[in-house]
Amino acid sequence: MGLLQLIFNQYGKVNLSPDETAEVSNRSKAMLQKDRTDGVGIEYVKVGKGKNAKVFYPITSIVAFLENNTIKTA
């Protein structure tokens, strides 16, 4: 079973909240926020504007980020 399927099976949805994403990616919510501000890190979806906006992370983006930042050893 692949990572994408494991995450989906655990959470039962295709978009995760910042709390859930922090748990899956082993990054703090503060680091996720800083990454969004800096325009780096895991791709996300923002719904709405201003302080009422909701941020979600597609599990496909989380998996891509983790796979692209995995260091493979011999």
Please trace the helix and strand order, writing H or E for each element.
HEHHEEH
Which structural class matches the secondary elements?
alpha+beta
Q: What is the first-to-last residue Cα distance?
A: 23 Å
Given as residue ranges, the uncertain stretches (5+ residues, pLDDT < 50) are: none
The number of distinct β-strands equals 3
Strand content: 5-15%
**How would a crystallographer describe the biggest sheet?**
3 strands, antiparallel
Distinct helical segment count? 4
Give the neighbour order of strands across the main sheet.
Answer: 1-3-2
Radius of gyration: 13 Å
Describe this protein's structure.
By secondary structure, the protein is of the alpha+beta class. Helices cover 50% and strands 14% of the residues. It is built from four helices and three strands. The chain has a three-stranded antiparallel beta sheet. A hairpin with a 6-residue loop joins strand 2 and strand 3 (54-58). The longest helix is centred in the middle third of the chain and has 10 residues, at 29-38. The chain is globular, with a radius of gyration of 13 Å. The two termini are 23 Å apart. The mean pLDDT is 94.
Task: Give a short synopsis of this structure.
The protein has helices at residues 3-11, 18-25, 29-38, 59-68, and strands at residues 15-16, 45-47, 54-58. It is of the alpha+beta class and 74 residues long.
